[in-house]
Amino acid sequence: MQDINRNIGQTLKRIRAEKGWSLDQTSKQTGVSKAMLGQIERGESSPTVATLWKIAGGFHISLSTLIEPAQEQEAGYQEADIRIRSAEQLRRRPAQDSMLVASLFPYEDSVGFEMYELTLLPGYERIAEPHESGVTEHVVVLSGCLELLVNGQWRELKQGDAIRFAADKPHGYRNLNEQPAVFHDVIHYQHQKSEC
Ligand code: MN
Fold first, then answer.
1. For residue 11, what are the contacts with CB-CB under 8 A and spacing of at least 6?
2. Which domains does the chain have, with CATH numbers?
3. Does the CA dihedral 171-167-23-1 come out positive or negative?
4. Does the pLDDT at position 180 exceed 60?
5. Which of 32, 48, 132, 171 has a beta carbon 3.0–4.6 Å from 95's, enabling a disulfide?
6. CA of 184 relative to ligand 1 center, distance in Å
7. What is the dihedral angle through the alpha carbons of 53, 56, 61, 64, rounded to the nearest 10 degrees?
8. pLDDT tens digits, residue range 77-125?
9. Distance 138 CA to ligand 1 centre (A)
10. Rounded to the nearest 5°, which phi and psi values hold at 39?
11. In angstroms, what is the span from residue 120 Cα to ligand 1's centroid?
12. Is the model's pLDDT at 73 over the cut of 60?
């Protein structure tokens, strides 16, 4: 069994226990079937990035919380407020999916965002569930050609193009070209400030 599947399974189990959610309730919140959730928890299934994103959404946690084991979230060179991370080392390919994910900067409350390097292999297409209210995504294309579905319209982005959009509505990502499309995605969460 791949380490990544075991880690995801353990993390899911822990988060579900913390919330006190049954498999039933978790299935309703995430839109992922009970059977699939059980398989993931037992490490018997390799969930795709799309499934992981659904689970993260249902729990209102970031994707990086699910795919990066705690010790790896702390990996990398760290000194005072400097953090150096390597996409090369972090790139993951859950379920041998055609989307690769490198969690460059996992979500932290202090900054309110997370940053990924995402790679879409040729032919990849995904319509994403809306994120929580107030979430924005900032996408910058590093190489290849990416199409983003925003406000019901597919928009082509080339190397160096950047777009920001409200990600609390349905949106999508696809690569219809022969080359991988690689981009940075900064997902910004707007949390309610707690009243003093
Ligand atoms: Mn999204």
1. 65, 66, 69
2. 2-67 (1.10.260.40), 84-188 (2.60.120.10)
3. positive
4. yes
5. 48
6. 12
7. -50
8. 566 678 899 999 999 998 888 999 999 998 888 889 999 999 999 999 9
9. 10
10. -65, -40
11. 14
12. no
